Every structure is written in structure tokens, then in C-alpha cells.
Amino acid sequence: MQVIFPGGGGGGAVDLQTAYDLSSAPILVLASSPGPFTIRDAATPLSEAFRVETNAAALLFRVTASAVEFGQNLDLNGNQITEATEIRGAGDITIRPNGDTDDGLVIRTATNEQALLPEDDSRGLYFGGSAGLAAAIAVNCLDSRGCLELLPLGNAGSPLTSAPANPGIIAWNGIYETNFVNNNFGGVLNVNGTYRNQQNGFPFNHGLIFNHAITYENLSGAAANFGPIFTLVDQPLVRSTGGARTISQHNSVRAQPKYGPHTGGGTLTLSNEWLFYCGGQIGAGTTVTQWTCFYVGPPTNAGTLTAWTGIDFPAHSIGTTRIGIRSALASPATFISHTGTAAARFGGEVEINGALNHDGSTLGFYGAAPVAQSAAYTASNVTTDRTYDANATTLNELADVLGTLIRDLQGMGLIG
């Protein structure tokens, strides 16, 4: 490439290198006239329109017909990439914060825009390494900051004032505030987060949640109640920071909830703790062949199984009323249907406050082996008599009392 110097003064044609070498200060200063410095591609686009290399001819930066490419690290020096069609890397794209308090990757989108949109079978966001997510994120989390957040939650002091249209949160160690009534979230994975309500709410109502050591509290004594909280696996701490707070229900499959200790003289009332809840709806035109809310399947066993327990109620004395299993089924429903051959054993007292209907073929009391019902007793000319004086009776009266007793035992099915 040559630069043409018009006019006299010994001008002529020189190349850019010579022009650079002859310059005392190789800076090109632009002005409003003639305007910007433009490099325009050929009518038939070149493979490269502009290129910058190291002294060893390694690529630093180049402009092609379809992209701007960097051969080395891109340092934004605290600035932002406000818009780009694509950001591609021949290998890994590494984002390294400048300091301990800087964010590694911040993706801000307009309403209803996708923050991460993977193509085909590619991963939208991937944390590799032998230790996976734990090494990439959890070890380096800072207190009071979410390490990975896929939703703009209300940060401490700047509360979220309306429910997101498409909720979905992954957060570690964050402190988040909400300031709208009946706040409603779902699709949540949280670890060690703190969620503070400023108004009555339903934290993560109808949520599919995996929580570990989550704290739910009202903000600085605000008159904000909780619940319900629906989770799969959790270990939440729910507490009042002041005032008489309530939570309608807490549902979970595997949970170790903690209620309190409270601060600021606060109290908390929980209406329902359902650690396993099964419900649903069968709409018109739907046929469900079998609905089983809790199924205990036998384990495959190639080794030695010492003990197997389907449902276990450990000994405790907590609560004014303690009920292991309660049923409000109406007749003709069957409360317990035991169709196996194994014995049903009760180590404590068995109290039956309703009718006892024994349909078995054998019966035994006080350790006696169950036997079949005896052959039928036949008595005739019996006058019903259940009262007699042992010191003033007759043989006929005793025969009537005995006949009455036989009929009573036959009526209960104890004898034939």
C-alpha cells in the first residue's frame, strides 16, 4: 500500500512503513471535517479487512467480512459490551474478574429477552473440571452475594417490587428482599440464602425447590407473614424479627425445618406442617387406573439385608396428641388392606373405638394358637335369661342361662 503526497516539495509515493518512520508523532488526529476515518471492504468482500499482529506475526486483532476476532485476551477495562450479535471463541471463553468484589459475568437483558440461548445440543452455561460446580462456584462464594443468579432478585436494601413473569432462581449465599403482596416464585435452587418479606407473601408458592439452610424472615419487624412454602428437599429456617407472624403451611418430601429462634420479641404460628403431601385433580374424561400416593417398593437384594422397614415411627413424647396414622375415609372405603401372609404385630395396646369385623377363619387369644370356629352348638326350648341368683336357682334356669350364653357367643361368631 502506498500513500500519495500531492503537490510539490519533493512529494511522491511512499508506503505506510516509510510514512510511519518519517513521523515525529505517529498519531492520526481526526476532525469534524473531513469526518471519520473509514476502511471500506471491497465489493467482493476480502477474507480480512483489517489485521493487527504481534512482532512474531501472531494474531492480536482482526476484522473479517462477518466478525471482529481477538487472538489474545480482551480487556474491557471496566467497560461493558452493550450489544453484539455473537461472541465466539475457538476454544474456551474465560471471564476473570479484576478484583475480589467485581462480578465475573453480568448479563442484563430487556424484558422477555433470553439471557443465555444455547444452540442445538450445546451447553448454555457449563462449569467443568474434576470437581465440577463445587470448585467453579461454591468454594469461591462471597458472603451476602449470589454466586450464580438466573433472575434479578431484590438485593438487600433494593427490594423486588413485583413478581417476575418467568421465575427461576439459582443462588448461593444471597440476601434478597421482596416488597409486594403475595410474592410468588417457583423453580428455585438455593443454598444458604436469606429471603426477607416486607409484605404478606407466599415465598416460592407452588415452587419446585431444592433448598439448603434457607432463611425466611420478615424485614426488620415488618408486618409480613409467610407461606406456604413447597419444597422437595430443604432445611429452612423460618423466623420472626418482630411481631406475631404466621405461616400457613410447609410442605416437603425430605425436610428438617427449624422455626426460630426469633428476634425482636417476635413469635411465629404455623398452621400445617406437611412433610409429605399428595393431592391432585382428575378432570372430566380422565380415567386413572391406580392412584398410589406413597409406594414402598422392595429393594433388589443380592447381599444381606438385616432389617427392612416401610414406615417407621420413632419413639417420642412431643405433642399433646400423637397419632401415627389417621384416616377419615368414609364407608365403604378400606383403611388398611393387608393381602400378604405376613403377620401384623402390635407391641402396644390396640384400642378399637369402632366395630370389630373379623372375617378370618381362625382365632386365638392369650397366646393360644389360632383355631377354626368350633362345630355348631344346638340348644332348643331356650328362654332368654341373663340374670340368676346362684343361691336360689333351678336346673331349668341354669339351662336357659347357658343356652342364652351360647346364642350370644354364636352371635359374635366365637363358636359355631
What does this structure look like?
The longest helix has 18 residues, at 395-412. The strands form seven sheets. A five-stranded parallel β-sheet has the order 7-9-11-14-17, with no helix packed on it. A hairpin with a 5-residue loop joins strand 3 (50-53) and strand 4 (59-63). Among the domains are: 2-29 and 36-70, no CATH class; 169-274, no CATH class; 361-416, no CATH class. Mean pLDDT is 75; it is low at 127-152 and 203-208. The chain is built from three helices and 20 strands. The protein is mostly beta strands. Helix content is 7%, strand content 18%.
Strand segment count: 20
> Given the structure, what is the number of helices?
3
Give the oligomer, counting copies of the same chain as homo and different chains as hetero: single chain
Query: Radius of gyration, Cα only, in angstroms?
Result: 40 Å
Whole-Å distance between the termini?
121 Å
Residues in β-strands, percent: 15-25%
Q: What helical percentage do the residues reach?
A: under 10%
* Largest sheet data: 5 strands, parallel
Question: Which segments are poorly predicted (pLDDT under 50) over 5 or more consecutive residues?
Answer: 127-152, 203-208
Summarize the structure.
The chain has 416 residues and is mainly beta. It is built from 3 helices and 20 strands.
Topology readout:
Layout: E1 2-4, E2 13-15, H1 16-22, E3 50-53, E4 59-63, E5 68-70, H2 133-136, E6 169-172, E7 175-178, E8 188-191, E9 194-197, E10 209-212, E11 215-218, E12 229-230, E13 233-234, E14 237-239, E15 244-251, E16 254-255, E17 258-259, E18 267-274, E19 362-363, E20 371-372, H3 395-412
Parallel strand pairs: 6-8, 7-9, 8-10, 9-11, 11-14, 12-15, 13-16, 14-17, 15-18
Antiparallel strand pairs: 1-2, 3-4, 4-5, 19-20
